[in-house]
Design goal:
Blueprint: H1 3-23, H2 30-41, H3 44-47, H4 51-65, H5 74-91, H6 99-106, H7 113-125, H8 135-152, H9 162-166, H10 170-184, H11 195-201, H12 204-209, H13 213-221, H14 230-248, H15 252-261, H16 263-304
Length: about 300
């Protein structure tokens, strides 16, 4: 099969999968769609030297794109915009094979690639129910956007501090973390100077996970959430209560203030501490009673056993 025919077949398959996604999602094949997408991207570099084929592929893509509105689904909008932008950036070296890109770019509210991806496409991925809650598709598109920005966008700031990171929207926080993993490696939590290490220390990941299902999905996938055991949670809770009491008793004046202003809270803390003290006393006593009872039963059985008096 000639190469240009093979490329057209991949393009046909890609848009057929998009139609299936929109009309009959139950029959949509995620992995087949992703393989087809990769198959198209794989020829972009070769088309830099094969200009006639590049122009032909560009025309074919444009014809396919025009068959349906790009906004007919979130997958069509994100996948086509990202794919065509990669095509223009990698395959078009002379401005002769950019008609499909020009068409797609003309449909954007923001024309520049990076601002459009960050300000529009990434938020689309993080809408409730986006991509039919298909986390595989979501992860793929997010990482494709991160790959484009790392390759053609503004350089990544490796020494980013927690303060400017906190100012980002939740979708852009996840995008920033994805870009950093691609460019700086996947073991950033082990680097005590990294943004990720500091974010984990201040429990920023724990707070971010509560913002949406997708945020939690990515943080778990990247192992950025430190799961605590039951006893470590108890220890942390007791440490927090103890710290509050140590602070309250550090000054007689401060103690009087908190007693008058925070009566309900400290009544609760007193109850918790008294409960643990009571358990610390009650459990050993009951255990001793139980042990004594079992010893008595054993001694009685020994006496009642034939020959037990010898």
């Amino acid at each position: 099969m000639p190469e240009d025919v093979a490329i057209r077949k991949h393009v046909d398959d890609l848009f057929r999968y998009l139609d299936t996604y929109e009309k009959s999602y139950g029959q949509f094949e995620t992995e087949a769609f992703l393989q087809t997408y990769h198959g198209i991207c794989a020829v972009f570099q070769a088309l830099r030297q094969q200009r006639d084929k590049a122009v032909s592929v560009d025309e074919y893509l444009l014809d396919k794109i025009k068959l349906s509105p790009l906004t007919s689904s979130d997958l069509r909008q994100a996948a086509v915009q990202v794919l065509i932008t990669f095509f223009e950036s990698e395959a078009d070296i002379d401005g002769l094979s950019n008609r499909s890109y020009t068409y797609c770019r003309g449909l954007r509210a923001v024309k520049q690639d990076a601002p459009f991806f960050e300000g529009h496409l990434v938020p689309v991925l993080f809408r409730d129910g986006s991509l039919n809650n298909n986390s595989r598709l979501n992860s793929f598109l997010l990482h494709e956007i991160a790959r484009f920005l790392n390759t053609f966008g503004k350089g990544l700031k490796a020494d980013l501090s927690p303060e400017p990171f906190a100012a980002l929207s939740d979708p852009l926080k996840i995008l920033e973390l994805a870009r950093r993993r691609q460019q700086l490696g996947t073991d950033l939590l082990k680097d005590r100077t990294s943004l990720e290490f500091h974010l984990q220390r201040i429990d920023a990941f724990g707070k971010l996970r509560q913002k949406s299902r997708l945020c939690e999905f990515y943080l778990k996938e990247w192992h950025y959430l430190a799961e605590k055991s039951f006893w470590s949670k108890i220890k942390a809770a007791l440490g927090e209560v103890g710290g509050k009491f140590r602070g309250a008793f550090s000054s007689s004046r401060y103690f009087r203030l908190v007693i008058t202003q925070r009566n309900p809270a400290y009544a609760y803390y007193v109850f918790i501490i008294l409960l643990f003290v009571a358990l610390a006393v009650y459990v050993p006593i009951k255990w001793n009673d139980y042990a004594s009872h079992r010893l008595d039963e054993f001694q009685k059985r020994t006496v009642q056993t034939p020959g037990g008096g010898r």
